[in-house]
């Protein structure tokens, strides 16, 4: 079906469904209160907005005492590639090239990082793009050099799921992806809040950030896969050592997790979208409850794990997350900013520090490239940005 455009809460969203389905989904979005779902819808709350803070010594809603940011810098080394359409996930492959997924096109493209040449591997069958859903995160098998397996998280007609596919670069361009093998399914899908980030951890287990699909009650339901961080084996089984018996659930009480990263001590961190007040950066502890929808941002309730940093929703709308040079680096969609959060263990050692604000538009994905380098993916062609010539693009950054 020909793509159609709808405007929901002031946001243009490109879809490929029938008009009736679009209108039904739009109604769901309007009732879900998605001020910071995945983009630039206007805030519900008027008046002054709270700003980015670090630490946990303050009461909910209060600003932390300003801590001078640790000195840091970001410079754009070069534009690696441009002309990408709705890029979402990124995975470096051995040899230095990059794989990038397209949310709406449901394709995976290889980028030669020396020349910027783009080669389409193929289209992932079964993807049903609409709203915030489609082909999202990708990750390489821990044994990629031997098995050539690519993992992908996507929205199907019935759910969100994880598949793996054989990558055969000897085949012609466009035909290099094998048939998808579904290893995990049944993650709730919605017009909004589909999560989508996947990554293999230092333990060689696969982690997936999910959303509550607009149904806030799922986040506190430990039997639901929505609003969770999941941990599974490469075959899709609940990983050994998970906090709940025979369950892939690793942490719960999340709204919409789209950033996963580990520091040098193999500690997991995650970024997630808030609703009207606070976006969050969390240090993840197995089995902990991160509060949604009972708490948004920091809380005095000991039943919930408070974030190590929080932002007003118009300053962040966080998606990708990476660790480099002793800091976490968080890509902001609505905030159009790359945020640096210096770490001291599992706490922020200084207030978040903004870089690249408004310079490249919406920022979707950030991935460590080794040493002091990062890969950064923009997101201006997703129906919620303002595309400029060359969008969307992959940038190489140097950070400290």
Count of distinct strands: 28
Query: What summary fits the major beta sheet?
Result: 5 strands, antiparallel
Helical content band: under 10%
Question: What is the percentage of strand-forming residues?
Answer: 35-45%
Query: What is the CATH architecture term?
Result: 6 Propeller
Q: Which ranges are low-confidence, i.e. pLDDT below 50, for 5 or more consecutive residues?
A: 1-34, 42-50, 56-66
Q: Which structural category do the helix and sheet elements fall into?
A: mainly beta
* Overall mean pLDDT: 89
Shape: globular
CATH topology: Neuraminidase
The helix tally amounts to 2
Determine Rg (CA atoms, Å).
19 Å
Description:
With 400 residues, the protein is mostly beta strands. The protein has a single domain, classed as 6 Propeller (Neuraminidase). Helices cover 4% and strands 37% of the residues. The protein is built from two helices and 28 strands. The protein has a five-stranded antiparallel β-sheet with strand order 3-20-19-18-17, with no helix packed on it. Strands 21, 22, 23, 24 and 25 form a five-stranded antiparallel β-sheet that branches. A four-stranded antiparallel β-sheet has the order 4-28-27-26, with no helix packed on it. The longest helix has 14 residues. 54% of the residues are buried. The N terminus is likely disordered. It holds the Pfam family GSDH. It comes from Streptomyces nigra. This is PQQ-dependent sugar dehydrogenase. InterPro entries: 6-blade_b-propeller_TolB-like (IPR011042), Glc/Sorbosone_DH (IPR012938), Quinoprot_gluc/sorb_DH_b-prop (IPR011041).
């Amino acid at each position: 079906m020909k793509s159609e455009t709808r405007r929901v809460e002031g946001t243009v969203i490109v879809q490929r469904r029938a008009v009736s389905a679009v209108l039904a989904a739009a109604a769901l979005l309007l009732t879900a209160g998605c001020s910071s779902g995945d983009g630039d819808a206007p805030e519900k709350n008027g008046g002054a907005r709270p700003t980015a803070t670090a630490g946990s010594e303050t009461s909910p809603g209060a600003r932390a005492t300003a801590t001078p940011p640790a000195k840091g810098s970001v410079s754009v080394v070069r534009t690696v590639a441009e002309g990408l359409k709705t890029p979402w996930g990124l995975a470096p492959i051995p040899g230095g090239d990059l794989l990038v997924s397209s949310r709406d096109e449901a394709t995976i493209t290889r980028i030669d990082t020396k020349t910027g040449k783009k080669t389409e591997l193929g289209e992932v069958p079964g993807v049903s793009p609409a709203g915030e859903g489609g082909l999202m995160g990708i990750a390489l098998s821990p044994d990629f050099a031997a098995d050539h397996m690519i993992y992908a998280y996507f929205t199907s007609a019935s759910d969100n799921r994880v598949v793996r596919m054989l990558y055969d670069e000897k085949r012609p361009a466009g035909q290099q992806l094998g048939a998808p093998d579904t290893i995990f399914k049944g993650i709730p899908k919605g017009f909004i809040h589909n999560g989508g980030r996947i990554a293999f951890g230092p333990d060689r287990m696969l982690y997936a950030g999910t959303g509550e699909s607009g149904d806030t009650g799922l986040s506190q339901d430990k039997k639901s896969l929505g609003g969770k961080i999941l941990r599974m084996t490469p075959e899709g089984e609940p990983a050994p050592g998970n906090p709940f018996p025979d369950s892939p659930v690793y942490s719960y009480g999340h709204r919409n997790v789209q950033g996963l990263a580990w520091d040098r001590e193999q500690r997991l961190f995650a970024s997630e979208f808030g609703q009207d007040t606070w976006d969050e950066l969390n240090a993840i502890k197995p089995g902990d409850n991160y509060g949604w929808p009972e708490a948004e941002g920091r809380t005095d309730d000991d039943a919930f794990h408070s974030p190590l940093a929080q932002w007003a929703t118009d300053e962040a709308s966080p998606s990708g997350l990476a660790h480099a040079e002793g800091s976490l680096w968080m890509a902001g969609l609505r905030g159009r900013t790359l945020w640096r959060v210096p770490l001291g263990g599992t706490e922020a050692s200084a207030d978040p520090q903004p870089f690249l604000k408004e310079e490249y538009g919406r920022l979707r994905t950030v991935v460590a490239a080794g040493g002091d380098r990062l890969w950064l993916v923009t997101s201006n062609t997703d129906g919620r940005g303002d595309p400029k010539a060359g969008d969307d693009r992959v940038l190489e950054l140097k950070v400290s």
